[in-house]
Amino acid sequence: MKGTQLNPALNRAPTAPAHIHLIGICGTAMAALAGMLKEQGFTITGSDQQVYPPMSDFLAGRHIEVQQGFRAENLHPAPDLVIVGNVVRAVNPEAIELARLALPYLSMPQALAHFFLQGKVPLVVSGTHGKTTTSSLLATTLLRMGEVPGFMIGGLVEAFGRNYNVDKSPYFVIEGDEYDTAFFNKVSKFHHYLPKFAICTSVEFDHADIFPDLAAIKRTFAEFFGRIPEDGALIAHGDDPVLNELLSAVHCPIITYGSGENCRWRLHEIESRDLHSSFSFSYQGAEGALQGSCDLPMPGRHNCLNALAVIALLHRLGFPLERILRAMSTFEGVKRRQQIRGTVRGITVVDDFAHHPTAVLLTIEALHQAWPQSRLLVVFEPRTNSSRRAIFQEDYAKAFAGADQILIRQALPLDGIAAEEQFSSTRLAEDLHKQGLDAQSFADTDGIIDYLARHAQSGDKVIILSNGGFDNIHSRLLARLEEKMEA
């Protein structure tokens, strides 16, 4: 099937659209956008290749009609506007029909900006790591201070029970992703988000399917920082060496946070107890000095730094420090971020989204601090396009220090990528063995569940790391442990 070229002149929102169709509606962000538009009174339809729970239930609960599969007839009768998801390629039959009908179209980030960011104060959380947790913490803290924000975040925020919100507040919190926008707009999503204030947690190489090298990542972040106006501010992690390289060219006000002496907001002592942390901090600014301590319902130094970034931003927005700290202490978390899924026979199963080598390392470090007396059995599924490439093979071999056992699922092959360029779970297990770590690879998820059902002991923490559903391993493992208890 031949691909299509969309008319750039039609890449716009029409005046007063009534019916909006979303191609690829079951993606996390696309489904959230569909819900937001539905709440604004638009007639919403959509289509996707894979229509199944939980997204199918989410959309059905909002009375949004979804067609299974991509077909030209899904654009009949013709909608007033089509929003094209990131998963859609130029050969998609609906993309081809979109061009033939000459309908107005937008990408998801363009639509978010047009319908929900105009006239708001966008608070964009960017960085290679920690975006979902930091943006969720920001949105929840605003909520607890009585300033209910609009937001779109890549995880389910417990305080709201969903990953989006539309409100009359001037603030709109966005998780600013550097991944590309759409087949017709190959730029990072966050370039569309009209940042007034932004947090940047880190800059590392990621998304190897999109960016050829770290230099390309640095260029897109530098361009994003250049979009922040002079009456806004960038809250930047001052300990990050790559990010620091970029700050000299930034023209908006910069507020740094971290442990270094040059950081305006400095992290000091940290104490961990189970899945909680407390930390002290200090601030030095033109208006004087501050110091305080924060109780945080999350473990790990990286989460304390994420919290300090939120404190710095909210203080810049004019919220009193005591109110910020009191509100932050009530944070309930985000689904799939250090989330306990259940405990059976004294064995605790924890779900986490970590997949980049640095995120894996920091997550294990945090959970080791939280449970220093427990064995950590770490289960890893390489699932993203980047994690299934050999480019991170050696980095993963350095990411599992602190784990007592490492169980690695074999990665599914990437189409069109040479075998020598693909990640090897077997090789990772061998490399970890050479370091004296107990590691093994498994052909499938069933093998991992069987192993854990036989070998996990009371007091163990099973840490499951994946950015996907991982064959429902969490519920299946808990059910198997229940069966063994009853036998």
Comma- or semicolon-separated keywords:
10-stranded mixed β-sheet; alpha/beta; 6-stranded mixed β-sheet; globular; 26% strand; 14 helices
Task: Describe the 3D structure.
The protein has helices spanning 28-39, 55-60, 93-101, 108-117, 131-144, 214-226, 241-247, 301-316, 321-328, 357-370, 393-396, 425-434, 445-455, 473-486; strands spanning 19-23, 43-48, 65-68, 81-84, 105-107, 121-126, 150-157, 162-165, 171-175, 180-182, 185-188, 197-200, 233-237, 254-258, 265-273, 276-285, 288-296, 339-344, 347-352, 376-380, 405-409, 439-442, 461-465. The chain starts with 18 loop residues before the first strand and ends with a helix. The mean pLDDT is 90. It is an alpha/beta fold. Helix 12 (425-434) links the parallel strand 21 and strand 22. Strands 8-7-9-6-12-13-14-15-16-17 form a ten-stranded mixed sheet, with helices on both faces.
Q: Evaluate the radius of gyration.
A: 23 Å
Helix content: 25-40%
Number of strands: 23
Q: Number of helix segments?
A: 14
Inertia-based shape? globular
CA distance, first residue to last residue: 55 Å
State which percent range the strand residues make up. Answer: 25-35%
Mean pLDDT: 90
Q: What are the segments in which pLDDT stays under 50 over at least 5 consecutive residues? A: none
Q: Report strand order across the widest sheet.
A: 8-7-9-6-12-13-14-15-16-17
**What class do helices, strands and sheet pairing give?**
alpha/beta
For the report, how would you describe the main beta sheet?
10 strands, mixed
